Amino acid sequence: AAATNIVLSATELTKEFKGFLAVNNVHLSIREGSIHALIGPNGAGKTTCFNLLTKFLQPTRGRIVFRGEDITRLKPAEIARRGIVRSFQISAVFPNLSVLDNVRIALQRPGRLATQFWRPDTALNVLNARAEELVEQVGLQAFIRHQAGELPYGRKRALELATTLALEPDVMLLDEPMAGMAHEDIGQIAALIRRAAVGRTVVMVEHNLHVVEDLCDQVTVLQRGEILAEGNYDSVSRDPRVREAYMGQ
Ligand code: ADP
User: Which terms does the record give in the GO molecular function aspect (predicted)?
Assistant: First the structure.
């Protein structure tokens, strides 16, 4: 039963930019524990949807509900405190600091856990242990003392994932986690995401359909701001409208 609980939903989600409907009346139901992909041709409205869900943009119309609470009017920081966490871009990684220090800093960001590390009784030991655990979880043990700025690209994405996991996300939103990655790194990051997704929900924008097929339980296909199809990968990939939308690219 838990698998079909809806953790995050959007109804009539609409975003207008000066009369242009980037997202038009979109309904999304994100199942608890699922890895849910948003796909679609360029300009389909995926990034806008993503920004609406994390409140980086205010919707023109519509409602977003997280675990029964209307979060439509909340600010990004309030969303993060509830456990809806967006992956940080590589630009948010401090290049002159070590991998470990980057994760330690992430653990102290205002979020669900941060306050516990400021309590003197638990402070440093807990923080350090948790940071090392996260470094290990994303396969960066060998790089733990390396400067983040010197990591190869794929390893930086892994570090980005660790800093996201540091916030203990309930729902984790990943914006093109494979973007710019070499083919051989993609499988590795996919494996990390699969592991990181255990016990949480993941929403991801992804261009690479092999990754979507391999990783995602649910797929929403957007086109021109509207939902073209949704379901599991097999059903949407067979949908003639989806095939047409992708062939047009
Ligand atoms: P996708 O991520 O699927 O490629 P986007 O959500 O980035 O699509 O964009 C959807 C549409 O909205 C595009 O036509 C884009 O040009 C337009 N758009 C996105 N952001 C803005 C903005 N801030 N102002 C005006 N138009 C925008």
Answer: ATP binding; ATP hydrolysis activity
In testing the pocket of ligand 1, which one of 23, 38, 47, 223 has its CB within 8 Å of the most ligand atoms? 47
Residues 144 and 160 in one domain: yes
Q: How far is the CA of 232 from the centre of ligand 1 (A)?
A: 25
Does 218 sit in the ligand 1 pocket, CB within 6 Å? no
Provide the H-helix boundaries in the chain.
46-53, 76-81, 99-107, 114-118, 123-137, 153-165, 183-196, 209-215, 233-238, 240-247
Is the ipTM reported for this complex over the cut 0.95?
A: yes
Do 159 and 101 share a structural domain? yes
- Give pTM, 2 decimals: 0.90
Q: Is residue 13 in a domain? A: yes
Query: Could you give the CA distance from residue 10 to residue 230 in angstroms, rounded to a whole number?
Result: 14
CA of 48 to the centre of ligand 1 (A): 6
Q: Report whether residue 46 contacts ligand 1, using a CB cutoff of 6 Å.
A: yes
Q: Does 142 reside within a domain?
A: yes
